[in-house]
Amino acid sequence: MNRGSQEDTIVALSTPLGRGAIALVRLSGPRSGEIVGRMIGRPLDPSQERKALFARIGNGRAGDDLVDQVVVTYYCQPRSYTGEDMVEIGCHCNPLIIDRLIQLAVDNGARLARPGEFTLRAFLNQKLDLSQAEAVAEVIHARTRQSLNQSLRHLDGKLSRRIHQIRDEVLGYLALMEINLDFSDEDIEAVSYPELQRRVEATRDQLENLLSTYHYGRLLQEGIKLLLLGKPNVGKSSLLNALLGQERSIVSEIPGTTRDYIEAGLELDGLYVQAVDTAGVRRTGDVVEAIGVQRTLEQLGQADVALALFSAAEPPDADDEALLEIVAAHRQEVQFVLVA
Questions:
Q1: Share of residues in the chain with pLDDT > 90 (%)
Q2: Cα gap 150→161, rounded to integer Å
Q3: What is the pTM for the complete model shown?
């Protein structure tokens, strides 16, 4: 895939789409200052970098057929997010203004940035490492405070520093082993083999501890998909509503009320949970209800945890047995919790 050249100057909206008070249009590349200087009708002075400059942008000359009154901030390389010359234009958050400003930048020599290209340039210019670059998207898409805190730690370089520390330790062990080998005939040891073994095992334990956090970290970022299973009228919809604290699913004494699955998001102990209320599992001759049951089984392949609900007020029946058969058939793929 063609990623474009870093010699290009790119432009994009850096704030969400929509209407509001302020939007930020960002340019990055060797011609950023020149292009914005043309847009505001006067050159940007590098000695005034990082200082907010009030300006008027028109369709050609400053103040002529006014596009907007803006605040311009100039960042000279390498003291910018991307490590390149970069300019940020703060304008009123109206899509008509934003589109016109971006078009003016393109008309003056910029091109539209590809998704993630500003962060890609920051990575290529060694302003961010790979873990930090990935953390930018994690911070933006975090859905709970706990996942946001983890993403901010990654962005701050905490994970990178830990990995680099382990890497340095491993390289140090290799150097010590080479010294021992080089001077083995002279009975010189930089470090004893028992001591070296102890250090290597300690580093191995650090790696294993780091690896053990992967699954929990993934759940923090992606969330947990929780499936509510059970025969009709066992209380799945009531449980979903209780978890949400609101009436999301229709509750009725009539079996088969839920014909299709219903999804809803919530936060439990800092984790984002996508709870899915499914159609009641039973053998049925109703064509529509049978389709709902089939969709329930399809959802099992995407779930992290499934709650299999049973009624404690009555003995198991044929529908409960059908559910137990499903649990037995899928227990290697999904973690089931049986609730009565």
A1: 36
A2: 15
A3: 0.65
